[in-house]
Amino acid sequence: MSRKKLYRIVIEGMVCAILIFILVFFVGFRVKKVIIKGNDFYSDKEIKRMILDAPIAKNTILAMMIKTEEKTKDAQLIEKVTLKRKNMSTLEVLVKEKKMIGYFDYEGKYANFDRQGIVQIFTETPIEKVPYIEGLDVKEVKQGEKLKGVNTKKLNSILSVGKMLEKAEEKPDKLVFNNMKQLVLYYGEIEVRLGNDENMDEKMNRLLGILPQLEGMEGILHLENITEDTQAVVFDNTKKDDTDTSEDENDIKDAEEETNEDSGEAIKENKDKKEKEVTGKETEKNKLEVTDGTDSADTRTEKEE
Questions:
Q1: What does DSSP assign to residue 89?
Q2: Hey, which bits of the chain come out as E strands?
Q3: How far from chain centre, in Å, is Cα 149?
Q4: What is the pLDDT of residue 181?
Q5: From CA 175, how far away is CA 130, in angstroms rounded?
Q6: How far apart are CA 214 and CA 288, in angstroms?
Q7: From CA 178, how far away is CA 86, in angstroms rounded?
Q8: Which tens digits make up the pLDDT trace of 122-181?
Q9: d(CA 266, CA 188)
Q10: How far apart are CA 87 and CA 29, in angstroms?
Q11: At what angle do helices 152-165 and 200-210 cross, to 10 degrees?
């Protein structure tokens, strides 16, 4: 075989290899699926428009070169975006949004602030799972700056409680300072009185452990004087039962008259079972003492700011 023919074979082989590489690179690694995770405030469509608007985003290898910090610099609630290649044709976008502690009314809009007390964004409507803060009395608000003119103790209380609630599945609807300048949380029809700032870690731990037991109930959860030594938490159940229980009471009375001692014990066991259903599966520290709310003494501490 002549040298000239050998050179031609080598060159043709290299050209074929390059063509195959180009074909695999641009066809085999073409983005066919995008998975977006971690976004609550921004929609998938908005994230794609921000991050994947460049031609290189059509290739799972070239997409790794996208400067996400530059792409999201104008998005107030995005802290970080990371791109990952799941496989040849699938791109994963991991979004880390800034967590908002709460929001309040300001000049016809809602001012949302983070765990440092910095106002991050003004919105026309509330952000989902961000509680409303009542009683802050903010005098001046600027985006990107810490809240000014707010009572320091009040702000610290909100930020402290807000940080503890970040990982909780259920967020309160609103946080309110009552007339004794103490923080109260509202979960629908449940009012949670926290009292002063003492033992706040213990109070919040009890609250998160007890909340599932209060599903469908109405009333006041007293956490004002909770310490590590407190055995049971008092809940004043104020929900009125509109059902007529007179027939049930008559049936129980008749049953007691007609049955023997063994059946009486069975009724008692059934009653105990119903009581356990109300309080739920409780640990010793999350034991709930439910009252009917008719004699719900205000157990808030008298200590004021």
A1: T
A2: 33-37, 78-87, 90-97, 100-106, 109-114, 119-123, 132-134, 174-177, 183-187, 190-193, 219-222, 232-237, 287-291
A3: 28
A4: 84
A5: 10
A6: 9
A7: 51
A8: 999 999 889 999 988 788 899 999 998 888 888 899 999 999 998 788 899 999 988 888
A9: 37
A10: 8
A11: 40
Q: Which two tokens stand for residue 275?
A: 């009581």
C-alpha distance from residue 222 to each of 72, 197, 293 (Å)? 44, 14, 12
Distance of alpha carbon 72 from alpha carbon 169, whole angstroms: 27
- Nearby residues of 19 by Cβ (< 8 Å), 6 or more positions away: none
Which residue's entry shows tokens 């700011």?
A: 305
User: Residue 259 contacts by C-beta under 8 Å, 6 or more apart in sequence?
Assistant: 267
CB of 123 closer than 8 Å to CB of 275: no
pLDDT for 1 equals 63
**Using CA atoms, how far apart are residues 284 and 207, in angstroms rounded to an integer?**
14
Task: Tell me how far apart the alpha carbons of residues 71 and 257 are, in angstroms, rounded to a whole number.
Answer: 78
The count of residues in the chain is 305
- The span from the CA of 227 to the CA of 229, in Å, is 5
- Cβ pair 108, 123 in contact under 8 A: no
**CB hemisphere CA count around 78 (13 angstroms):** 23
User: Residue 115 in contact with residue 162, Cβ under 8 Å?
Assistant: yes
Quick count: other Cβ atoms within 10 Å of Cβ 44? 14
